[in-house]
Amino acid sequence: MIEPWLYETHVHTPLCRHAEGDLDDYAHAAFQRGFHGLIVTCHAPMPEGFSPTVRMRVDEFDDYLSMVFRAQRHWQGKIDIRLGIEAEYFPGFERWVEHQLQSADFQYVLGSVHPQMVEFKQRFWTGDPVEFQRAYFQILADAAETGLYDCLAHPDGVKNETPDAWDPQAVMDDVCRALDRIAATGMAMELNTSGAEKIVPEMNPFPAMLKEMCKRSIPVVIGADAHRPDRVGHRFGEALDLAESCGYRCVSFFVGRTRHEVPVAAARKAISCRTTASARMDWGMGDHARSGGGLEQPTWTDSTRAE
Ligand SMILES: [Zn+2]
Ligand SMILES: [Zn+2]
User: Fold this and answer.
1) Could you tell me which of 26, 57, 95, 100 has the fewest CB atoms within 10 Å of its CB?
2) CA 169 to CA 211: how far, in whole Å?
3) Which of 36-40, 131-135, 286-290 has the lowest mean pLDDT?
4) How close is the Cα of 41 to the center of ligand 1, in Å?
5) What would the pLDDT profile of 200-258 be if each residue is shown by its tens digit?
6) At the fourth CATH level, which superfamily is domain 7-285?
7) Entry pTM
8) How far is the CA of 154 from the centre of ligand 1 (A)?
9) Domain ranges in the chain?
């Protein structure tokens, strides 16, 4: 279905233990920036003891649903708030995720491989950073082949775990093999704008990978992965330019787990239409303009970055 509007598809809340700001602040930011809707994608609970410092606990899941549905009612008529989830992919936990995804009416399911997790490193780190990168891309394709998710999040996240050994050309064959497998599943992949703020300062995935995705007709979904309200919609304009320069004419989002397409030009227009002088003033002066910091850093690993 072709739509004239765009959703912000990837935001977190303090329930994830490494994000800040009320959901209302995220909704307000999305509204001001011209989004038609906002999909909340907190990190899904995992069994007790599995990277517990960066996600809600199982017994907080009902709070998550209440929070999202309350915001949905509150913002009705202004912005379409939807329940999503960022579900983990980790080999051996497929049944857990499958069961989890049946437990609520999720509108959008991001599938994430997080190579920064202690659990991931314990299982897959062999001492060779390039081997680690290769393993990551294979696991990403494994995630797609489960069929559990709508879209694969930040699909080259491994580059920030091994930045000194990151040479896209060295792993391009592995990337292309993974993309062949992913394309065969029909799953979408994310263009995650938050990558531009990380150690390897470019969006995820890197441009050559985005081009290969486009060649294989893999749908692309833009998400800011906002862990604070002022990052909602962050760099979407740049992301649209990048997607277009890599060959995409449309970007996608999911509602009701159904993919919707937006022509790039329409997406650009949609998110520029409400960035008026009054909106800017509101951002500069209001309670909703937040600076970063304030929260303790999360502990995916010893070193560590969340997302
Ligand atoms: Zn995320
Ligand atoms: Zn996160």
Assistant:
1) 95
2) 14
3) 286-290
4) 7
5) 999 999 999 999 999 999 999 999 999 999 999 999 999 999 999 999 999 999 999 99
6) Metal-dependent hydrolases (3.20.20.140)
7) 0.90
8) 8
9) 7-285
